[in-house]
Design a protein that fits this description.
Strand content: under 5%
Order of helices and strands: HHHHHHHHH
CATH topology: Tetracycline Repressor, domain 2
Shape: globular
Low-confidence stretches: none
Number of helices: 9
Oligomer: single chain
CATH superfamily: Tetracycline Repressor, domain 2
C-alpha cells in the first residue's frame, strides 16, 4: 500500500503528464486539424507511451475537447492581456492589430484556434464544439466590453460582427499563397472596421 506522500507524488506526476499532453495536443490540433491529430503522435511528442493515453482521457474526443478548451483559454487570455495593456479607447484597435498581424497569421500552431479550426468544428463531437462555443462567447463579451456603447444590444452585435471579420480574414489570409494578398486582406479589414475603434 502506498503512503500518502507517494500518492501525492504519483498524482502530481500524472497532473504534469496530463498538462504536457494537453499542451502538445492544443498545438497539434491547430497545426494539423482535428482529423490530422493522432493520439500516438501526441503521446510521442509529449514523451509518453501510447498505452498511457487512457490513464488520462476516456476517449480521443475527450482529448480533443480538452485541447480545444486549453487553446481557446490561451487565446482569450492573450486577447485580455492585449486589451488591458492598450491605452484608453484603443483596446479594439490594439486587438485588431494583434489578431491581423503577420505574426498571428503565421502562427497557426499557437494562434486563435477558431481561425485555425473553424471550418472543421461543425463536424466534431458535441463536447469539442461546446468547448469552442464557450471561448467564442468569451471573446464576443471581451470585445463588446471595449465598445463605447457596451451594455447595449448593438455593442454585442458589433462585437460579433467584428470577431467574425477577424476570424474570416485570418482564415483567408492563411489560405492564400500570395503574401501581398494576405497582407491586403488584413489591411482591408482594418480599414473597414476602423470606425469600431474610435
Amino acid at each position: 500500500m502506498q503512503n500518502k506522500s507517494t500518492q501525492r507524488v504519483t498524482k502530481k506526476r500524472k497532473e504534469i503528464s496530463h498538462d504536457r499532453i494537453l499542451e502538445v495536443a492544443a498545438r497539434a490540433i491547430r497545426r494539423s486539424g482535428y482529423d490530422g491529430t493522432g493520439v500516438a503522435d501526441i503521446m510521442k511528442e509529449a514523451g509518453l507511451t501510447h498505452g498511457g493515453f487512457y490513464a488520462h482521457f476516456e476517449s480521443r474526443d475527450t482529448l480533443l475537447a480538452e485541447a480545444g478548451d486549453r487553446a481557446g483559454a490561451e487565446s482569450v487570455a492573450i486577447a485580455s492581456r492585449i486589451v488591458a495593456a492598450a491605452p484608453a479607447g484603443q483596446a479594439i484597435r490594439a486587438l485588431m492589430e494583434a489578431y491581423l498581424s503577420a505574426e498571428h497569421i503565421n502562427a497557426i500552431e499557437t494562434g486563435c484556434p477558431v481561425s485555425a479550426l473553424g471550418s472543421e468544428m461543425p463536424r466534431q463531437s458535441p463536447e469539442v464544439r461546446r468547448a469552442a462555443t464557450l471561448h467564442i462567447k468569451e471573446m464576443i463579451d471581451l470585445v463588446a466590453r471595449q465598445l463605447p456603447d457596451w451594455g447595449q444590444p448593438q455593442a454585442h452585435e458589433q462585437a460579433m460582427a467584428l470577431l467574425c471579420a477577424l476570424i474570416g480574414t485570418t482564415m483567408i489570409a492563411r489560405a492564400v499563397d500570395d503574401p501581398a494578398l494576405s497582407e491586403a486582406l488584413c489591411a482591408a479589414t482594418m480599414k473597414q472596421f476602423n470606425p469600431a475603434t474610435e
